[in-house]
Every structure is written in C-alpha cells, then in structure tokens.
From TrEMBL:
<dbReference type="InterPro" id="IPR010982">
    <property type="entry name" value="Lambda_DNA-bd_dom_sf"/>
</dbReference>
<feature type="domain" description="HTH cro/C1-type">
    <location>
        <begin position="8"/>
        <end position="61"/>
    </location>
</feature>
<dbReference type="InterPro" id="IPR001387">
    <property type="entry name" value="Cro/C1-type_HTH"/>
</dbReference>
<dbReference type="Pfam" id="PF01381">
    <property type="entry name" value="HTH_3"/>
</dbReference>
<protein>
    <submittedName>
        <fullName>Helix-turn-helix transcriptional regulator</fullName>
    </submittedName>
</protein>
<feature type="coiled-coil region">
    <location>
        <begin position="94"/>
        <end position="121"/>
    </location>
</feature>
<keyword id="KW-0175">Coiled coil</keyword>
Amino acid sequence: MVHQGHNVKRIREILGIKQDALAIKLGLSQQAISQVEQKEILDKATLEKLSSALGISEDTIKDFKDEKAINIFSNNYHDNTSVQYNFNPIDRWLETIEENKKLYERLLQSEKEKVELLERLLKKV
C-alpha cells in the first residue's frame, strides 16, 4: 500500500525543501509537517494544500514511487554534464565578508546607542 505521508517526505527531500520551510509556506509548525509525513493516508484538503505548496499534483503524492523518480532522472540526465556556475566563488566569499562587516557595524552602533541611553538614564537618577 502507498504511504502518502512518506511520499510527501521523499518529494520534499528531492525538491530540497526542509520541513520548517514547508511549514511556513502552509502556516503550520514544523511538528505538524512531521506528523503529516507519518500518516499513511492524507485527507483531500491536506493533499490539496501540500500539492499546491510543493508545486506538484495530488496524484504525484498518491502514486509516487522512488523507482519512477530514479528512472526520470536517469532518462533525463544521462549525459553526465556538470553544473556550470556563473559566478566566481572568491567574489561571493568577499561579498559575504563585506555583508558580515556591515552587519557587525550596525550591531556595534546599536550597542553604542544602548550604552548612551543607559548613561543618560543613570545621570537622571
């Protein structure tokens, strides 16, 4: 028998979606998604919401089989081409460092403002 909850989990994993991200998209908790993935049969409303959030049909959840997915990948990606990135990783690394620097400066400024506020409050006391 098909376990629809397990199918949701496998599809979610294949799509690279974490439970908490799916939960946010559906307005649920991560624990609720975990519970859904444990259910053998999902009600119609749940199937509709999940299929919409995952961008797939309800039938895909109902009829999903790992073997079919493997066949789709092997039939469509058999040429062993590698992924080409259109960015320089060093540039991305430097951008990240710069973003972290700006974040740190904002945090430091916020802390300075807190200290100034506390000093003014203490002078009044």
